[in-house]
Amino acid sequence: MNGPDAGEYRIARLRERLAGGETAELGVRIEMRGEAVLLSGTLPTADHREEILRIADTELAGMPVLADLGVASADPPEGHEDLP
């Protein structure tokens, strides 16, 4: 399967895989940007980010993938902030 329909089909499969696993509630957005697929969102841990990228590499093999996936830190600050 080649062409734009193949890309949309593969993106739909990626969405299904992410919705069915431990990553279901992470709110990753997936969209086509020209010839590439953009993954964006903020994730709770670097492990979740790596898992999503691994799944995307499997489902979208051969397609360019752009990842704008940040990792939110829930750790308290290590020191105090000096304000001017």
Describe the structure.
It contains two helices and three strands, in the order αββαβ. The chain has a single domain, classed as 2-Layer Sandwich (Histidine-containing Protein, Chain: A), CATH 3.30.1340. It has a three-stranded mixed beta sheet, covered by helices on one side. Helix 1 (4-20) runs antiparallel to helix 2 (46-59). The protein has helices at residues 4-20, 46-59, and strands at 29-33, 36-43, 65-71. The chain is an alpha+beta fold and 84 residues long. The longest helix is centred in the first third of the chain and has 17 residues, at 4-20. The protein starts with a helix and ends in a 13-residue tail after the last strand.
Descriptive terms for the model:
84 residues, alpha+beta, three-stranded mixed β-sheet, 2 helices, 37% helix, elongated
What is the general shape? elongated
* Main sheet: strands, sense, barrel: 3 strands, mixed
The strands making up the biggest β-sheet line up spatially as 1-2-3
| Radius of gyration over all CA atoms, rounded | 16 Å
Poorly predicted runs: none
What fraction, in percent, of the residue positions are helical? 25-40%
CATH topology: Histidine-containing Protein, Chain: A
Mind sketching the topology for me?
Layout: H1 4-20, E1 29-33, E2 36-43, H2 46-59, E3 65-71
Parallel strand pairs: 2-3
Antiparallel strand pairs: 1-2
Helix pairs in contact: 1-2
